[in-house]
């Protein structure tokens, strides 16, 4: 009876469905939905960890920012070269993108050639690998008759984990896919490529998953996920920027490269690992790393199948227990075999020196199915985690989204796509997920990323390039300034630069003493000062002052109202100091162009800086002030001198440094004065020998340079717009390029143009952006601060009613930098003309001189002073120019001139 049962048992075994024994043998590989949901939840937790700056270092899913924020809009155009490096071969492509052929319209043409990578390069030096890439690129250019001399924009698909700080920079974190290139980890791969290739400009480096998403996104608006299932595996998706800690900004989205192949490296998948997974990992080049990829990707699926079949054969479950040498050899079953095994099982097994029975063939087919299905199930779990996160980020109950897919496993395995789609939809029934196969590979996507980058860069370049002045242009500005200085000193002939005599013949000598009033009108404020000098003690000066605002309606009202307001401020200050009954000598700093015939008279030539008070131009401002004092009839002043603020600044600084013979104002206005030889000043009737020194301070009023059209070649359309909207259309052209009163308005005009072109503020031209004067120059100083983060820039813009993203902040900062740098360079060119003239006046080969400086632009802007000084140094190499900021302003200078004049009278 026992014998009958044994025969029956063995007979039933012989008749058993061969797939069932495989099911029992690979039970651990068959994952049910609860397990997949558990894996998906663990993956979501790891994503969150990877996005956090605090925990990113320990995260196995690195969540690398790609700096890809913009997708194609249809206005991209041009020809691009593309390199695709990520496996045992790499491709070189020429990609042509036609304008206006965007979403769902095609418009991309490609030619490509594949080049093998010799095995020794995969374990060689990095320089050798990139030299090979360079030589292959040159071969492609030669074959396609593409010029080797012309510079070509290049897209670079680099399918390895990289940390990117910008779109065109990426430091390699680690190699994968059998690459073990030496001396390259932690280095910028784009820089290495640039060094290997002479005539290309690498505009963008992207991961193959990102490029796949962009390729499919070119045809489908909803494509916001990229998936690779090939030799390696990875996914990317559009994450909300507010969650990406490693990048500044909290608005908009950025594509994140998950690098999900490392999921499980911390043991999170240990309970799902089989002995075959452990054997594959132990025999790999990177044990303990890329665990998820080793369970999923094409590089390992064939080896997993081989190990399963080998063990089943050893246990007598296949091939009657026979094990061939080929079956024992690593790599003998490839991923291509896994994809093809259903159709050619017998041929593949026979090629391994095996003699399979029909049941053996069925069993091996089932092994490949289970191994492949586990791969697709794990990918489904990871994808479900990504889609769930997107849905939660956007607070949606249902999500419509497209996943762009590429990779040999997905493309060639007959059952893989269907299984993947089915499981994803089962895990996320509330999501409508469409899968789109990338028909052009990742290279097309890389070219599109580059096309988008070039579209944005070219528009910005076109807009900002007129502000970037060459050395030759600055030399021309210096020469024109010099010509203007010379012309202004003559009595005949026109000159845009007024070159007004100040009748100040001396800088301070330390003998000044006594109490003096300084009155300073130069912009939107009026300053009253009391200065006490002690004889021979330059550093023992006492100064008291108060600041008063000049309202807009006073600036642009009547002259009588303006001077009455000034006198009211003086009265308040004298009350404050208890000096109402004292008749003090006063110096009046009046920072507008004046024709002087003596030190105590000054006829206003024209208003600047937004002043428009009537009945002042053509009148002596000292007389206007004296008349206002009489009308008030509360006090009397002895107005000894009227000076320009540049002269006051020079005098104030000369009190500290005897070499100071130039004054510069770089603030609300822009102007310079300097000590000129009297013999060169035709406007004065001074005779030689009448004065101790044959020099006089000249107020250049250099802001008028260009009023004759001499700067038209560097004036931009934005400057023209600012000029046309000003109170003095056609006047003070140089000042409108260099002074604080106008720079903010120039920036606003540029921002307005960029917004209309769709490069800023989502293309939405708001009322604040259309408001003249809203962008004050102080914002340039704040925005360009090296210590200011982009979020703070964005806060400034939002405070102005400009709803901006951090991308917008980057562009605004660039615009501010271009406008302010040009202003500083122009001032530097003008200064070079002035100091060179002084040097030549004195017949010197080399001049040491100090420039006294005042003005908020010079003092508060983080880069203005440095650029100005550098430009002056380059353009006037025979002059050693020291810049000395004025601590006390031009009011102290006015007091010094008054003191000097009074002492002169007593001598």
Automatic annotation (TrEMBL):
Enzyme superclass (EC): transferase
Its EC number(s): 2.7.1.1
GO biological processes: glucose metabolic process; glycolytic process; intracellular glucose homeostasis
Domain Hexokinase N-terminal: 22-217, 461-655
The protein's annotated pathway: Carbohydrate degradation; glycolysis; D-glyceraldehyde 3-phosphate and glycerone phosphate from D-glucose: step 1/4; Carbohydrate metabolism; hexose metabolism
Predominant place of localization: cytoplasm
Gene Ontology molecular functions: ATP binding; D-glucose binding; fructokinase activity; glucokinase activity
Membrane topology of the entry: Peripheral membrane protein
Domain Hexokinase C-terminal: 225-452, 662-899
Catalyzed reactions: a D-hexose + ATP = a D-hexose 6-phosphate + ADP + H(+); D-glucose + ATP = D-glucose 6-phosphate + ADP + H(+); D-fructose + ATP = D-fructose 6-phosphate + ADP + H(+)
Keyword Kinase found: yes
Subcellular location: Cytoplasm, Cytosol; Mitochondrion outer membrane
InterPro entries xref list: ATPase_NBD (IPR043129), Hexokinase (IPR001312), Hexokinase_C (IPR022673), Hexokinase_N (IPR022672)
Gene Ontology cellular component terms for the protein in this record: cytosol; mitochondrial outer membrane
Keywords: Acetylation, Allosteric enzyme, ATP-binding, Cytoplasm, Glycolysis, Kinase, Membrane, Mitochondrion, Mitochondrion outer membrane, Nucleotide-binding, Repeat, Transferase
SUPFAM superfamilies attached to this UniProt entry: Actin-like ATPase domain
Subunit text: Monomer. Interacts with TIGAR; the interaction increases hexokinase activity in a hypoxia- and HIF1A-dependent manner.
Function: Catalyzes the phosphorylation of hexose, such as D-glucose and D-fructose, to hexose 6-phosphate (D-glucose 6-phosphate and D-fructose 6-phosphate, respectively). Mediates the initial step of glycolysis by catalyzing phosphorylation of D-glucose to D-glucose 6-phosphate. Plays a key role in maintaining the integrity of the outer mitochondrial membrane by preventing the release of apoptogenic molecules from the intermembrane space and subsequent apoptosis.
Family as reported in the entry's similarity comment: Belongs to the hexokinase family.
Protein name, as recorded: Hexokinase-2
Lineage: Eukaryota, Metazoa, Chordata, Craniata, Vertebrata
């Amino acid at each position: 009876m026992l014998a009958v049962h044994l025969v029956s048992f063995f007979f039933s075994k012989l008749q058993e469905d061969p797939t069932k024994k495989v099911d029992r043998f690979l039970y651990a590989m068959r994952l049910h939905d609860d397990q997949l949901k558990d894996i998906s939840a663990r993956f979501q937790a790891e994503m969150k960890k990877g996005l956090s700056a605090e925990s990113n270092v320990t995260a196995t899913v690195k969540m690398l920012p790609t700096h890809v924020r913009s997708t194609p809009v249809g206005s991209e155009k041009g020809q691009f070269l593309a390199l695709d490096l990520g496996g045992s071969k790499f491709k070189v492509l020429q990609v042509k993108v036609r304008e206006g052929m965007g979403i769902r319209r095609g418009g991309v043409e490609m030619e490509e050639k594949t080049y093998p990578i010799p095995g020794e390069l995969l374990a060689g030096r990095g320089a050798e690998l990139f030299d090979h890439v360079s030589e292959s690129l040159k071969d492609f250019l030669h074959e396609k008759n593409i010029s080797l001399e012309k510079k070509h924009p290049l897209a670079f698909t680099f399918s390895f984990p990289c940390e990117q700080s910008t779109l065109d920079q990426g430091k390699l974190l680690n190699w994968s896919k059998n690459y073990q290139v030496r001396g390259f980890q932690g280095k910028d791969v784009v820089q290495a490529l640039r060094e290997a290739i002479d005539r290309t400009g690498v505009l963008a480096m992207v991961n193959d998953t990102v490029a796949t998403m962009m390729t499919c996104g070119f045809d489908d608006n909803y494509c916001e996920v990229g998936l690779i299932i090939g030799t390696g595996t990875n996914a990317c998706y559009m994450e909300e920027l507010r969650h990406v800690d490693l990048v500044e900004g909290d608005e908009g989205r950025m594509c994140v490269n998950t690098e999900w192949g490392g999921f499980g490296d911390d043991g999170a998948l240990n309970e799902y690992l089989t002995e075959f997974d452990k054997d594959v990992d132990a025999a790999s080049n990177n044990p303990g790393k890329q665990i998820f990829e080793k369970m999923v990707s094409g590089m390992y699926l064939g080896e997993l199948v081989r190990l399963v079949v080998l063990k089943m054969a050893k246990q007598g479950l296949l091939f009657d227990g026979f094990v061939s040498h080929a079956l024992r050899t690593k790599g003998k079953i490839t991923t291509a075999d896994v994809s093809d095994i259903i159709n050619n099982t017998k041929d593949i097994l026979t090629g391994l020196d095996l003699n399979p029975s029909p049941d053996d063939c069925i069993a091996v087919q089932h092994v490949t199915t289970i191994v492949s299905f586990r791969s697709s199930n794990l990918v489904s779990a990871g994808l479900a985690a990504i889609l769930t996160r997107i849905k939660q980020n956007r607070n949606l109950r249902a999500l419509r989204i497209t996943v762009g897919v590429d990779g040999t496993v997905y493309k060639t395995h007959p059952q893989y796509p269907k299984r993947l789609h089915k499981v994803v939809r089962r895990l996320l029934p509330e999501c409508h997920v469409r899968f789109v196969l990338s028909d052009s590979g990742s290279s097309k996507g890389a070219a599109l990323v580059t096309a988008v980058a070039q579209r944005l860069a070219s528009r910005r370049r076109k807009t900002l390039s007129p502000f970037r002045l060459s050395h030759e242009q600055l030399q021309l500005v210096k020469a024109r300034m010099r010509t203007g200085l010379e012309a202004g000193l003559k009595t005949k002939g026109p000159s845009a630069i007024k070159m007004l005599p100040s009748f100040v013949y001396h800088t301070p000598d330390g003998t000044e003493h006594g109490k003096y009033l300084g009155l300073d009108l130069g912009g939107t404020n009026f300053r009253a000062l009391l200065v006490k000098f002690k004889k021979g003690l330059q550093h023992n000066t006492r100064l008291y002052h108060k600041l008063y605002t000049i309202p807009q309606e006073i600036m642009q009202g009547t002259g009588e109202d303006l001077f009455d307001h000034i006198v009211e401020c003086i009265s308040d200050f004298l009350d404050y100091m208890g000096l109402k009954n004292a008749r003090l000598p006063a110096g009046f700093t009046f920072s507008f162009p004046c024709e002087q015939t003596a030190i105590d008279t000054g006829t206003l030539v024209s208003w600047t800086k937004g002043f428009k008070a009537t009945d002042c131009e053509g009148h002596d401002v000292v007389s206007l002030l004296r008349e206002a004092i009489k009308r008030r009839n509360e006090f009397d002043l002895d107005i000894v001198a009227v000076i320009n603020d540049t002269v006051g600044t020079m005098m104030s600084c000369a009190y500290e440094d005897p070499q100071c013979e130039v004054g510069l104002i770089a603030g609300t206005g822009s102007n310079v004065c300097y000590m000129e030889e009297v013999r060169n000043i035709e406007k004065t009737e001074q005779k030689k020998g009448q004065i101790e020194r044959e020099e006089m301070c000249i107020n250049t009023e250099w802001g008028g340079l260009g009023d004759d059209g001499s700067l038209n070649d560097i004036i931009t359309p934005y400057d023209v717009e600012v000029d046309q909207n000003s109170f003095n259309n056609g006047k003070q052209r140089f000042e409108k390029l260099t002074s604080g009163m106008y720079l903010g308005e120039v920036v606003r005009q540029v921002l307005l143009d960029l917004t209309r072109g769709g490069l800023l503020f989502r293309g939405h031209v708001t009322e604040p952006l259309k408001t003249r004067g809203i962008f004050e120059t102080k914002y340039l100083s704040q925005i360009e601060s090296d210590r200011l983060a982009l979020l703070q820039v964005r806060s400034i813009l939002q405070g102005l009613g400009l709803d901006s993203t951090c991308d917008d902040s980057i562009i605004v900062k660039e615009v501010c930098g271009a406008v302010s740098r040009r202003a500083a360079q122009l001032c530097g060119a003008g200064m070079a003309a002035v100091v060179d003239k002084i040097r030549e006046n004195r017949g010197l080969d080399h001049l040491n001189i100090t420039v006294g400086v005042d003005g908020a632009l010079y003092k508060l802007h983080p880069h203005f002073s440095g650029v100005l000084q550098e430009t002056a140094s380059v353009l006037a190499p025979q002059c050693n120019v020291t810049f000395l900021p004025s601590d006390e302003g031009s009011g102290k200078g006015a007091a010094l001139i008054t003191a000097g004049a009074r002492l002169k009278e007593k001598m």
